[in-house]
Design brief:
This protein is mostly helical and about 170 residues long. It contains six helices and two strands, in the order ββαααααα. The longest helix is centred in the last third of the chain and has 27 residues, at about 115-140. The termini are far apart.
C-alpha cells in the first residue's frame, strides 16, 4: 500500500452530534491538506424555534419598528438609571420637544383639515408621553411604580398608530 492510498489517523476534534466527511487530496496538490467538512446532525427543537422567530422578526421588521424602539428604550433607560440616576434631570427638557414641534408646524403650515389637526395632536401627545416616560424611567427606573404600565400603553398606542398609518397610506 502506497502512502497515497493509506489512510492517516489524524487527531481531529469533532463536536458531539456531528458527522465528518473527508474529501481526499486532489491530484497535483501534494502539499495541500485534505478537506474536512463537518455536517451537523438534525438541529434541536430550540434551534428550530429560534430560527423561526428570527426569520419572522426579520420579515416583519418594518411593521414591528415601534416595538423594537420600545424595547430599546426600556433597556436603555434601565442601563441609564443604573449608571446615572440623575440623567433624568438632564433629559427633562426633551419632554417638551413634541409640543414645541406642534406649535412650530401649526404656525408654518396651518392644518386646513380637522383630521390633519387631530393626527398632529395625537402624534404630539404620544411623543410627549414617550419622552416623559424616558425621563421618569431614567430617574426612577423603568419598572418603578406605574411606569411599566405607562410603557405598555404607550407601546400599544404607538404600534396601533404605526400600523394604521402604514395601511392607509
Amino acid at each position: 500500500m502506497s502512502s497515497r492510498t493509506r489512510a492517516r489517523a489524524r487527531a481531529l476534534k469533532v463536536p458531539a452530534g456531528a458527522t465528518t466527511v473527508r474529501i481526499p487530496r486532489q491530484r497535483g496538490r501534494r502539499s495541500a491538506q485534505p478537506f474536512v467538512v463537518v455536517v451537523p446532525e438534525r438541529p434541536s427543537l430550540t434551534r428550530e424555534a429560534l430560527g423561526f422567530l428570527g426569520r419572522a422578526l426579520c420579515r416583519f421588521r418594518r411593521p414591528l419598528a415601534p416595538t423594537g424602539f420600545a424595547l430599546l428604550a426600556l433597556l436603555g433607560t434601565a442601563v441609564l438609571h443604573t449608571l446615572a440616576w440623575w440623567s433624568g434631570l438632564v433629559l427633562a427638557p426633551t419632554a417638551a420637544g413634541p409640543l414645541l414641534w406642534l406649535t412650530f408646524v401649526q404656525r408654518r403650515r396651518p392644518a386646513a383639515d380637522r383630521a390633519v389637526w387631530g393626527w398632529r395632536i395625537a402624534v404630539a401627545l404620544l411623543g410627549t408621553t414617550a419622552l416623559a416616560w424616558v425621563v421618569l424611567a431614567a430617574a426612577f427606573g423603568p419598572l418603578a411604580g406605574p411606569l411599566e404600565l405607562v410603557w405598555l400603553l404607550t407601546l400599544i398606542a404607538a404600534q396601533t398608530a404605526w400600523l394604521t398609518v402604514r395601511r392607509t397610506h
